[in-house]
């Protein structure tokens, strides 16, 4: 009978673990965790890197955390690690609940487990913080056991454990100290003991600060769940809540004596006796709740973005486009990721995607913002354009601001090689050689560079062929001039043309659009893209001049649509003059009748009275 | 029972002895130097020197330098290095694989015994077939003069505009220990600060000064009495201590950064405005003179002569009013002259400036003058234009004899930027930042300068791991040699940052421009 119960408990555990593993593997996708800039920590092989972490408090926990994060790059292993950490959370929580002699210990232990699962789903799973909390609680339980067994050893054990805790996990000593102080209060220990624990916990970081050059407040708060920077983020609220839960457990731990447990009970998610009578209902309800939670918890937007980053990093452009398509089907909008734009470029699909949201975002940045601080999302576009200097600028900013993520280093390798700075590329490659995931790639790359002097990727030569030949200061270089220079340097730079036309369209420079139609034939366009056609008909209508189209012709549907648009516009103008409608209503109605049409954009931005650009004739920019 | 107690240790001891007997010959074998007499395997001679990395071949080294560990870049499985000198073979090192790591104490002994003479490094490489390859010896000279034992520098990532972590560090050149003086990390209280060029008087860091910008823009002055915070606005950029240890010459610069679209070095820096001033630490006041703060000129890079009676600096006409004028490429025409102006330390007044070397004569921009402590030479760099030579790949180091005004280009230069130079206290060594080999990361290089101005071959500051620089993603900025370590604690700087500043009196409010937070570099947060 006992064996049956034990076997059932093991089977239940196995099912739960398998479920978590599959959830982590299929739903969360550890590769997305690996790519998340919020959770990624660089990890390098070698003694130097290890020694760096061993020289300050909290370093060991951070080192272990950084190592564990690398495992996420391998889906199966990553899912296993995530499952292992979650299981550890459950086991430690259950041990604490048992020590506090609380009923429904498995259900209580599930609370922090679910909180951590929520973090995992939000791609903010910091192994260091969780391991710190687990270590603090585990050491507290050990200390508590030792204190019960030998009350005289209470203080020395506390001192030793707190030193170990401080060194291993820095701020975790605060948690450990709090637990011990609360335990002392609950057990009505001597006041001197409580004061000693409190002062010792506070004194440790200060003493370390005197002995070694470190900032006491930083070491004290490092790796701590209750760090002020973390506490008030909504995603960490769950973590804070379960931290308070542990404090509650600690307070009760010494008040209630441990129960006499019948043999054979236990196992994960086992029900207390009362619950067992309702076994099917409780279990079904619990499982259903869990399933519902797991379905709604994952941050799907983040996951898609991170998976796209992962595929783009490995140059799996088809996979990138698949993710983007799936996102569009799910939400009706384009995935806001530059990598999709790069994928369109690499797969030669720019001709079919003119005036995309990506090119519009990039041009909007160029038109409106100071280019001294390029956001990192622009770097990939600069690189594809051939303005590799600016790509390097943006990537170096990212490097200076955070972790040397391997994907960033790889991009810098390529940027340096395009610019023929092989020495700098080798530095980045040598750094990558110490990375667990990318060492072989870097090593092969370095070997190829040493043997042939050339990069083992065609991409380098292709991008180099697009680079600008004349130097300018970027801050004062007009954007359209830059695109024209790029086209002059490489007449097949279709991205430069796409951006140029997007620039003219967004700026309302119809003259610029018309002047550069000649590139369509050079770049192999089979037909004139629809936004360009609309710009042409607008130009012809506003100037009265016919635009020579060489071997191209306007699509009859575009011409018809423009005719209908003009009629609608005339109708609305009448209504506006009569005071029946206003311009805003007109734009709204026209937007719904002509979705994604450049005609509406031009009207609303450049022709309406209330717009600052109103009254500008086409070609005003020329 | 008693037998068992004896037998077990005896057996263990026997096993250990047996193991030693088997392994000892092999161990001894691998320690043997292939002289051809008792070595199994042939020894072939390679009629060339080995390729070693870093390049420590044919250099003049200080007698107190840390071991010049290197890796042998030849095909093989193990390297051995035999160091010989006047007294014969003095040191033999079996490499860890192909890396030769000298034991520090023995290295020190070798150098001290061969001070002023040559040492020869003979490298042997064991090839895969078991034979040995013997390379021609690498001959280095151990100088008679020591180098200042400490090197202080700023470690920064290859910054364009924003940064997350930077700091000022000091390295013991007689060993490998590097310690932070001030590591400007973001904290709970501060998002982050930038630490500017550090300075201390005459190689002695009992006085230490650096400027911070960002969350807290201030000047930190460390004296034997403690660290204090001096409020001068955002005035100080480049600083130089007067030999009287009470006066600090500084420049105040309104800096703009630009980025090139097709140049090798992407970054460029221009000064929209800059002037010089002096800070008086004893009275906590600062002032300037019309001669060094002319509105139509850009004055920067102050440097005192060793006797304190002359201030050297760089000056250029102000051609650029704002950054939008850059589309005319006029910034490429800004070239600095090398100037000097007499200074009376007693009256604290300046005389009339004169041109030492004009940009018109050289066709280049003359920057960063540094006078040798013996007063004999002036070290400076020149680049095609502008005020920031580390961003100019063509920047090279030059040496001028002060008495004659004769100057020449040092043979220590590379194809990449060489700048941020500094003398040792005995005027026999210089350190400078060089981007050779990478173009992006600057490393500190040491070089011997003879009494007659001849320069030795530069070599990179040694590290315990010969491959350290190969993957190090930080750049060494403003290396300064020091005869003693900076003993101020980081916590002292942190505490002073949070203490109320001592507002310095501006004795020339109409002359010094308010640079404000003019540096384009900012913390990422």
Assign the structural class of chain A, choosing from mainly alpha, mainly beta, alpha/beta, alpha+beta, or little secondary structure. Answer: mainly alpha
Rg of chain A, please? 31 Å
Multimerization state: heterodimer
Shape designation of chain B: elongated
- How many runs of DSSP E, i.e. beta strands of chain B? 39
Helix tally of chain A equals 33
Our Rg estimate of chain B from Cα atoms comes to 27 Å
Largest sheet of chain A: none
Number of domains of chain B: 2
> Could you give the distance between the termini of chain B?
72 Å
Overall average pLDDT of chain A:
81
CATH H-tier superfamily of the largest domain in chain B: TolB, C-terminal domain
CATH class of the largest domain in chain B: Mainly Beta
**CATH-level-2 architecture of the largest domain in chain B:** 6 Propeller
Structural category of chain B = mainly beta
Main β-sheet of chain B: number of strands, strand sense, barrel status?
7 strands, mixed
Report the largest inter-chain contact. Answer: A-B, 51 and 49 residues
Shape of chain A: elongated
For the secondary structure, the number of strands of chain A is 0
Q: Report the uncertain regions of chain B.
A: 34-39
Q: How much helix, percentage-wise, in residues of chain B?
A: under 10%
